[in-house]
Amino acid sequence: MEEVDKYIQMRYVLPIILCLVIKLGFAQNNPNNFQKADSVAKVYLGFSLNNLPQLASNLTSFSNDEVERYRAIFTWVCENIEADIPNYRINNRKRNRFKNDTSKLEEWNSEFSKIVFKRLLEDKKTVCMGYSYLIMQLCYLANIKAEIVDGYGRSTTSIYDGFGLPNHSWNSVYLKGRWYLSDPTWSSGDINSENSEFYQKYNDGYFLVEPTEFSYTHYPLDKKWLLNDSSLTFSEFQERPLVYKNAFKKSIFPKEPNLFNRVIEKGESIEFIFKSKSVKNLQNISLEIIKGSTIKLIDNYEVLDESHFKFNYHFTSKGKYDIHLKVDDTYISTFAVTAR
Questions:
Q1: I need a labelling partner for 64 at 20 to 30 A (CA). Which of 4, 57, 70, 169 fits?
Q2: pTM
Q3: pLDDT higher than 50, residue 232
Q4: Rounded distance between C-alpha atoms, residue 166 and residue 263, angstroms
């Protein structure tokens, strides 16, 4: 709900971005398959970062399966490390200030890296750089190959402000002969939009995400980390529908239209098609249509096959519309439509 509130505020006012985005050979995003790994992570809740080799051993010695071992590392990091909001803001201001001065930007990046790792070790608070670094280091100590991926994280802010400097980091991990994508920062919790405080709230929706879905919100500087979605251009990434955290948690993603903004003629209809991991289990799903102060909820949708469903809406009057897919009281994705 907070993300959508931000979207609506930014649509009519202005925004802030938080850095704080393959068919798997095993069940994805299903916590029941990782009960043992998650239990191990909980056993070592609060363990110090001063002895990373011991921490890595504690988290991974329970299993020979590298997916389970990676899960324990990922869960531990997400549940033990907090987002460092003050330093995120400082970094954001400095990077914007020096974005046209390469030497000063490099100097600041070097200085900020020291701040990030000091704060991480002493207080277990960090920004995305620290989250992805810690994942990589623990994986290295556990003989799991992992990389840091730098790039752009897409949010309500980036839609209105555009993309300047790269603003996010995440991880790619090599498991059972293939690379997979994860974002420990966005899995670790939420920011309260009213007081800008961080709340630890684990969301395993960003654990080993299918690349096409990951690329709704993450675009790497090195396109090889798009994996099997490598044909996606940066401009196409910018133009995609807005996707929220709950899309990853519930595994529901927009498929058509594949644009955030759409301009049509009055009287036209649009089919909004979505992909779901399990259409037959969908409950309390609706399309919210907002035009000015008028809000309309549509709950009749058509099942297309076992993994796709659609809503059809006829735009009978001119104006600007915000279209939100909702499940229960949570928001999944957003489109903007202008009927002329």
A1: 169
A2: 0.85
A3: yes
A4: 29
Residue entry with tokens 């790994």: 37
Q: How far apart are CA 302 and CA 288, in angstroms?
A: 16
Spatial distance between the Cα atoms of 85 and 125, rounded to a whole number of angstroms:
9
| pLDDT tens, position by position, 255-275 | 999 999 999 999 999 999 999
At 337, the amino acid letter reads V
Residue 197 is predicted with a pLDDT of: 79
DSSP codes of every residue in 300-315: --EEEETTEEEEEEE-
Nearest Cα residue to 249 out of 86, 52, 31: 31
| Burial class of 154 by CB neighbour count within 10 A (0 to 12, 13 to 18, 19+) | buried
Burial class (CB in 10 A: 0-12, 13-18, 19+), 94: middle
N-to-C CA span, the chain: 29
Phi-psi region at 62: left, alpha or beta (left = phi > 0; alpha = psi -120 to 50): alpha
Q: How far is residue 65 CA from its own chain's centroid?
A: 26
For residue 299, the SS3 value is coil
CA distances in angstroms from 323 to 69, 91, 268, 288, listed in the order given? 40, 34, 15, 6
The 10s digit of each residue's pLDDT in 233-260 is 999 998 999 999 899 988 999 999 999 9
